[in-house]
Amino acid sequence: MKVGLQSLPYGLRLLLATLSLGIGAGLVGIACHYLIEGVQRLAFGQASSDLLQLFQEAGNLRRFLVLCMTGCSAAGFWYILQRRHKIFSIRQQIDLAGDRDPATLAHLLHAGMQVAIVGAGASVGKEAAPREVGALIGGRLAKVFFLTVKERKVLIACGAGAGLAAVYQVPFTSSLFVFETLGLAYSWQNFLLVLASTYLATWVAQPIIGQDVLCHLSAVSWSLSSFLQAILIALLVTPLALVFSFLTKQANRKRRKDETILWALPLAFLVLGSLVSFFSIFMGNGQVLAQALLSHQPVPYLPLALAMKGLLVYLLLRNGAYGGTLTPSFALGIGSGYLVTLLLTVVGVHLDPALGMLLGATVFLGTTLHAPLTAIALTLGFTGQAWSLTIPLVLAAGMSYVIRKRWERGQ
């Protein structure tokens, strides 16, 4: 088998590795889908696409107990796992390609726990796990097909994008993510490899995951006043996104990995469980909060609710949990954009709240991901909006990018 693969032309081996990666990443997306559903059924008695209803019907005590048990289980799991294995981020997998391979089983278990705690209601995103496993598959396939270290790094990045594409059904957006956030070099070959892997992964996972958008919102239009709204929201929301981005980076950098995780992470989940036993809106990765705002459901004390949501993400990550920040950033952006639009109404500037939420999400995602184009595509893809709405979103993302760059130069 080894001799047979090596005898194939290099271009054919690269193509076969890319196609295998797309199929593998699609299967990862399906596995994540079933794992979240399985955890929800175990924890709350059923699985549902209407997460707010699912969490509310579970009852106060059940939500509290589920999160407390999840915190204790996750703490013990990550303490034992990290004593025995080094967990590599996607960036580390790319940088160390050809020098050191991550432990496959350890990383699969690590990713599975990330997805499980999201299914149980933890305030972190589920997207980190399929990205990490996709990257892991990309590295392994590159080695199996005897590709060079250069192509191995490319396939790891492609795998991360394909995992994201599969779980959220956003292939074009995930392709942008690979180039903007992971910094893959621009070339025709890389474009083709990224597009092939992301679109194939989406196609493989689609029959199970479906094409439904993350959050439902009626079609939004824009006018000349939208440009003023884009400028104001970029000016006012970007600083909030910078604070959240700083906090989550600090949390990831200083994450507890020693024996203190055994009491600190259960305590963090206890805080979350105590809060959601009264306010189910804080359950989950942010999708519940975002959908509530987009469907015009009242969220009492919105500024406090947004601050608490951001702090809960920081609290879990800092005390040992792993997970993504994409969906929390989307929810916080939706809330921040809506809040700014309401405050402008108070001073006599009447603008569209729905567009304000989309602008806020774009600014927040662009700031936290360091990827304005990806942020625009994610906002449109997550809410099912037409691409004609891109124009005001581009203005907001562009202004936010300038503000972020000036802030970074001042550090």
SSE class: mainly alpha
Distance from first to last alpha carbon: 54 Å
Portion in beta strands: under 5%
Rg from C-alpha positions? 21 Å
In a nutshell, what does this entry contain?
The chain is mainly alpha-helical.
Describe the protein.
Helix 4 packs antiparallel against helix 6, helix 9 (171-180) runs antiparallel to helix 17 (372-383) and helix 13 (287-294) packs parallel to helix 15. The relative contact order is 0.14. The protein has 18 helices and no strands. The termini are far apart. The longest helix is centred in the first third of the chain and has 35 residues, at 10-44. The mean pLDDT is 91. The protein is globular. The protein has helices at residues 2-6, 10-44, 51-58, 60-84, 90-95, 104-119, 128-144, 149-168, 171-180, 188-209, 225-253, 261-276, 287-294, 302-318, 326-346, 353-369, 372-383, 390-409. Helices cover 74% and strands 0% of the residues. It is mainly alpha-helical and 411 residues long.
Topology:
Blueprint: H1 2-6, H2 10-44, H3 51-58, H4 60-84, H5 90-95, H6 104-119, H7 128-144, H8 149-168, H9 171-180, H10 188-209, H11 225-253, H12 261-276, H13 287-294, H14 302-318, H15 326-346, H16 353-369, H17 372-383, H18 390-409
Helix pairs in contact: 2-6, 2-7, 2-8, 2-10, 4-6, 4-12, 6-7, 7-8, 8-9, 8-10, 9-10, 9-17, 11-14, 11-15, 11-16, 11-18, 13-15, 14-15, 15-16, 16-17, 16-18, 17-18
